[in-house]
């Protein structure tokens, strides 16, 4: 019960950390946090009954460095949800595709790289998506610095494994699908 995972939000409601219930109760007792979502679980002590929250928020702002996601094949595939951005197929046998081909001055950057299955990458060849009459499902972009990316990049744990059992309130707060 005391090892239950609790989502900690910064004062501005940005995801900050995940702590256990014991730490959350201590932070609440010291008036450093406030309860945002009740977890529905309680702990009965000798002196009182304590409700275990699901989400807490710091009452003061905690400055933290923004994590930087390095450009790599795995991170591009992760950003794109391991799906081809041209046909939408979920395939583990993906390739990196330069939207504007490097032979035409395209850069090797977040904004020009996307995931593509081998068939789509081959049919696009050295052309732009417009020339190949192919449409991108989403525009390539640098990943947002958030708790999800931070945990994924620093611990080498897949997102699906960590967040598949998240409570609905967490998923809403983290904008996780």
Automatic annotation (TrEMBL):
Keywords: Endonuclease, Hydrolase, Nuclease. InterPro entries: HNH_5 (IPR029471), HNH_nuc (IPR003615), NA-targeting_endonuclease (IPR052892). Gene3D superfamilies: 1.10.30.50. It comes from the Archaea. Residues 71-122 form the HNH nuclease domain. GO terms for molecular function: endonuclease activity. This is HNH endonuclease.
């Amino acid at each position: 019960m005391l090892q239950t995972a609790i989502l900690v939000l910064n004062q501005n409601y940005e995801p900050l950390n995940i702590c256990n219930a014991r730490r959350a109760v201590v932070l609440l007792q010291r008036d450093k946090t406030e309860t945002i979502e009740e977890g529905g679980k309680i702990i009965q002590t000798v002196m009182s009954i304590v409700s275990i929250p699901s989400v807490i928020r710091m009452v003061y702002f905690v400055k933290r460095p923004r994590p930087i996601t390095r450009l790599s094949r795995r991170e591009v595939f992760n950003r794109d949800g391991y799906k081809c951005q041209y046909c939408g197929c979920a395939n583990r046998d993906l390739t990196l595709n330069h939207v504007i081909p490097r032979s035409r001055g395209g850069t090797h950057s977040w904004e020009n790289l996307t995931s593509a299955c081998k068939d789509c990458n081959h049919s696009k060849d050295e052309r732009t998506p417009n020339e190949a009459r192919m449409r991108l499902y989403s525009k390539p972009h640098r990943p947002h610095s958030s708790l999800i990316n931070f945990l994924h990049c620093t611990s080498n744990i897949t997102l699906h494994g960590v967040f598949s059992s998240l409570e609905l309130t967490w998923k809403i707060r983290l904008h996780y699908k």
